[in-house]
Amino acid sequence: MSERIVTLGAKFLNRLSYLPDDALITMLKPFFTNKRFHQLPKLQQNKLWLSLPEPRDSLPSGALKKAISDMRQQHHIQNCNASKGNILISACRLQIGVDPILWLPMTARERSRLIRWRMGWLPGKPQRCSNCSNTCTSRHHLIDCLDVASVLGVDPSCKPNPIDFLLNRLPRRQPSPRSIIADPYPAVIYWSKHWPVLAQLMLDIDTICHPEEDFTTSQTDPELGQQFLQWLDNRISPSPPPPDSNTISAISNSNDSNFHHFDDLNNSDSNIPSNSSIADPLVTLASG
């Protein structure tokens, strides 16, 4: 919220510089030197505004936008590297951007599990683990109980954890056919090895955390983890469009049970308000 306050204050001061002479606040400017009208001088102490080059009354096009972007990126890196901070934020990419899990081709239930994992809604409320029957479910317990690092074939010491480690490596654009022919290993072969296993692992976690649900259809689904691989191999074209602005507002207003049956996320996304703490992990979603 503090970041949003600073951003709006800098935008107000920037707009104030371009208002016509007959605007009310422009006509009142001479009175702002009076101590009784201290709001504007106080607002002009905005840290973001003071960081802009002089003269601030005639900033070049895009200067404020770049300053805001740099500030958000700096704050995000600080939050990710904080020793005591948001676990979900620190699990995302260091580069701010739309998380690929919001638009990469996959089934609705696959996307739901990944989003709920990123948001902390999976595993959700701690309960008795049905896999070992002696410990309550949590992110750390499930990663150890299911031996996730070994199953995914990644280093157990990878940061922040084996699941988010792979999610942070998802591609942000579809590789060209020429690059696949020249050197297919970095994309197609790598994800052909890891993605189906990750999709099955997320299904196992969902099954453990929701023992009352029937996952028979999902466990026998031949499409599990296949849509993304087909897209990666350029068998699905064109590349999915960037997310639109209709769905994530619904995500932030949903609870765990709603998300368990969230089936309308395919090929959709939204611009997440920066003052929404519950949506922060998806902004970096980012992850980057």
From the structure above, extract its key features.
single chain; 288 residues; mainly alpha; 17 helices; 48% helix; 0% strand; disordered C terminus
Fold and architecture overview:
The protein has 288 residues and is an all-alpha fold. The chain folds into 2 domains: 2-85, no CATH class; 100-285, no CATH class. Helix content is 48%, strand content 0%. Helix 12 (185-209) runs antiparallel to helix 14 (226-232). Residues 245-279 and 283-288 have low confidence and may be disordered.
Total helical elements: 17
The number of E-state strands comes to: 0
Shape descriptor: elongated
Estimate percent helicity.
40-55%
Give the domain tally: 2
Strand-and-helix sequence, N→C?
Answer: HHHHHHHHHHHHHHHHH
Classification by helices and strands: mainly alpha
Beginning-to-end CA distance, first to last residue: 20 Å
- How does the major sheet shape up? none
Biased composition (Polar residues): 245-257
Region (Disordered): 233-288
Biased composition (Low complexity): 265-281
Task: Summarize the SSE layout with pairings.
Elements (H helix, E strand, L loop, with lengths): L1 H15 L7 H4 L11 H5 L3 H4 L12 H19 L5 H4 L17 H12 L19 H7 L2 H5 L9 H6 L9 H6 L2 H25 L6 H4 L6 H7 L15 H5 L3 H5 L19 H6 L3
Helix pairs in contact: 12-14
TL;DR?
This protein has 288 residues and is mainly α. The chain has helices at 2-16, 24-27, 39-43, 47-50, 63-81, 87-90, 108-119, 139-145, 148-152, 162-167, 177-182, 185-209, 216-219, 226-232, 248-252, 256-260, 280-285.
